[in-house]
Write a structure and sequence with these properties.
Length: 467
């Protein structure tokens, strides 16, 4: 009877909303407004390789394999996949077996041991789509967990690359400071000789001492900053501090030079590649399905239960007599004090929140791409200007040093030239680091640097993840 009623009642199944089209909830521009036109094409899967720095490539590979935040996200993905299997199990009956042995005692006790074997079967007919909605919610959770894992990989990859660039810049600034300190040691010695010879006043000596001491004071801070950045990279790649710092100091390299004017895909294509936007959309789908699950509580539940059992005094006659029963029943919620209605309202509120979060992720992605593209273009201009300034400051310092030694200028002029040289060289390295970091930020904003790990596919039909 229950099987006959199922098709008829199934027409009254709850309706479930699907996530709307992206363009319908948040207007998306046809083209980028502020980003300059691009020329260089970037392979987003391995964009850090374009920086041509072996340590960046090594650290990124280590982070993708050993980062503990990624390990936690992979565990959440496995939990979501188990949740989907649990939801799908609701379509199948549950069977519980039982068995026992009984021996009577007393004057009227039966002789021997009474054996019994039985089984209980329960099955819920998904008349109104409650189980189906639960499965859809679990599938959305699985997809959201998979995309969240990819998004975390995207962010951590960019963090490792950016931190390594910072370390390269700090190491180069430290080398500049040490070179400048050696020059200032010579200047101090020259000032002392000239003072002893009566050619200059003691003021030159004191100014030389002050300048040298200021440069010497900056070196410990740069060393401390380099250690801090190296240790942060060590944590990101899942290892104790020490080796990364040694690698950075033993194999110094110039700050990487990224490609200029990167080609950017259309806004809609870029959004489709962003795992955080996809994760937000999947979470919205899951929350919309949960609205259907909550609404199904107001509709009847149909269950089919059955019991089968047998007994005997020995194994040979255990199955001579088999008994059982089957019961089909419908249950309908009548009154619960508004609990079910409040759960529906809560599910709808969660879905509204997920919709707003999805829209926010779209706007954030558009903002990141536009800002990073403009930043990269501006960094190129700034580096070019600072290169010219550094060359000029270098020539001025050489001339000032030779003229001071010849007694043609006072020490104050040399002091200004040396300070300008140190300032422009340091600013140039900082600008070069900012330019490389702007490229990394742009590649990350375009959705570069992530992939679903092998064996941990977002597809619900995939097997157990291997991560």
């Amino acid at each position: 009877m229950l099987a006959a009623l199922t098709p008829a009642i199934g027409g009254c199944a709850i309706s479930r909303a699907e996530p709307p089209a992206m363009a319908s909830v948040q207007p998306i521009p046809d083209r980028w407004v502020l980003a300059p036109p691009g020329e260089a094409t970037v392979a987003l899967d391995r964009y850090w390789a374009m920086l041509d720095d072996p340590l960046i490539a090594e650290f990124v590979e280590r982070a993708q394999a050993e980062n503990l935040d990624l390990a936690q996200a992979a565990a959440r993905l496995r939990a979501a996949r188990a949740g989907l299997r649990q939801a799908e199990a609701g379509f199948l009956p549950s069977v519980t077996a039982s068995g026992g042995a009984q021996r009577d005692v007393g004057d009227l006790a039966r002789d021997g041991v009474q054996l019994s074997v039985g089984a209980d079967v329960q099955w819920e007919a998904d008349l109104f789509g409650r189980i189906d909605a639960s499965r859809d919610a679990a599938r959305g959770d699985l997809q959201a967990a998979g995309y969240s894992l990819g998004d975390l990989e995207r962010v951590i990859t960019a963090q490792v690359a950016s931190q390594t660039v910072s370390a390269r810049a700090l190491a180069e600034q430290l080398a500049i400071a040490r070179e400048t300190l050696a020059v200032q040691d010579d200047n101090l010695q020259i000032a002392r000789w000239r003072n002893q010879a009566g050619l200059v006043a003691s003021l030159d000596v004191e100014q030389a001492r002050t300048q040298r001491a200021q440069t010497a004071a900056s070196i410990p801070q740069l060393e401390s900053n380099l250690v801090a950045v190296a240790n942060a990279i060590s944590t990101l790649i899942g290892e104790p501090p020490g080796r990364v710092y040694a690698a950075l100091t033993e194999s110094p390299r110039a700050v990487p030079v990224p490609p200029a004017r990167v080609t950017i895909a259309a806004p809609a294509d870029t959004l489709r590649r962003r795992p955080d936007v996809s994760a937000a959309e999947a979470q919205l789908a899951a929350d919309l399905a949960r609205v259907g699950v909550a609404r199904a509580q107001l509709l009847p539940f149909a269950r089919l239960t059955g019991t089968i059992g047998t007994g005997g005094t020995n194994v040979g006659d255990l199955f001579d007599l088999v008994t059982g029963n089957v019961f089909a029943g419908l249950s309908q919620l009548i009154f619960d004090g508004g609990r079910a209605r409040s759960q529906i309202d809560a599910a709808r509120a969660n879905a509204d929140g997920s919709l707003a979060f999805w829209r926010q992720s779209i706007l954030a992605a558009l903002q990141e791409v536009e800002s990073a593209a403009v930043d990269l273009d501006a960094s190129d201009t700034r580096v070019a200007a600072l290169i010219e300034a550094s060359e000029g400051a270098q020539n001025a310092a050489i001339l000032a040093r030779s003229q001071y030694q010849a007694g043609l200028i006072d020490f104050q002029t040399l002091l200004v030239a040396e300070s300008q040289l140190l300032s422009t060289r340091t600013a140039l390295v900082s600008a070069q680091g900012s330019r490389a970091q702007a490229f990394i930020a742009l590649a990350r904003a375009m959705g570069g640097g992530w992939s679903v790990p092998e064996g941990a596919a977002i597809n619900p039909s995939a097997g157990e993840p291997g991560t």
